[in-house]
Amino acid sequence: MKNIKIGFIGAGHISNSMSNAIDNIEGIEKYAVSSRDINKAKEFSKYHNFKKSYGSYIEMLEDENVELVYVATPVSHHYKHVKIALEHNKHVLCEKTFTSNYKEAKELITISKNKNLLLADAMWTRYMPSRYKIEEFLNSGIIGIPKMLEANLGYILTNKDRLFNKELSGGALYEIGIYTINLALSVLGHNIKGINVNSIIDCNGIDLQSSITLNYSNDVIATLIYSINSITDSRAVIAGTDGYIVIENVNNPQNIYVFSKERKLLDSYYKNDGIKGYEYQLKSIVKSISNGEIECKDMPHNEILEEMKLVDIITEQNRNRTEQNRTEQNRTEQNRTNIIILTIYYSIKKSIHKKRIDFFYFKNSGVNYE
Fold first, then answer.
1. Which of 31, 86, 225, 259 could link 5 by a cystine bridge, Cβ 3.0 to 4.6 Å?
2. What is the pLDDT of residues 292-309, one digit of tens each?
3. d(CA 116, CA 166)
């Protein structure tokens, strides 16, 4: 089978990692990279041994040799860049978070189906062996019936300007919260009957940290905590009726431990293959394209849509909370202004009243001022 020629839209940090992963697998060939800055594209191309470099995304997409496109631009641009890639008849691998909302994701998936092109979400944890090891433990019944999931993920990312730019879909949810959401969907499924969101949002409407509670219809609860302004131990615990599973490193599971009711270690899994993780999704994509499939079985389209449904609900609750905070702030400021106005009014009124009394007193005192 001939290699699939890949072209990159975006030449940032994440593209470096993806490029390095391509060197470790068969079936994909580094062909082209595009950036709005041609010098950046040329530099990236030279360093990573791509054959072509373009200073225009469209120009690269018009290159008939490009078969697969990797979209690695900010989340706010995913919809636009994936769409034009599909319209140029290219298979697409899009970085997480897939899009800004459900509507965008639904439209892109429809286009991929109509054109019979592969469209994949680069949610790398879904492609890793650790994901299937977790499923194996759960299906074995070793911890009984899962009843609760706790997952946290926190990094201090206050130095990344794009995360504090609303126009670039900044915030904790799109950057790292999506990993906790994906874990919950992967482990517990989609049968969610209620969602409660509690977020800390800055004055620009950027979510800094959140606590999400998912209530499932089978009396199961998932508590998801994520932050871009504090550090956490990045662990997850799946609690069952007969034991529990501990997952280290939610966004890149390395070690998994299974404990009994008595908290005795029953089984474990250690990732020691030396592969960072991008290779697994690339292998899945090569296999899917070779089989003429338009989605990867590791992260099929329905899973992408379920993920984006939750993103919509969370962003909507955050939006409502932001508006509520602004209303309360405006009300507080108005009350403060009213108090100041009343204070000034009564102060002036008191002063005028005193002057009238003083005038009356001196007028009737018989004192001659002349």
1. 31
2. 999 999 999 999 999 999
3. 34
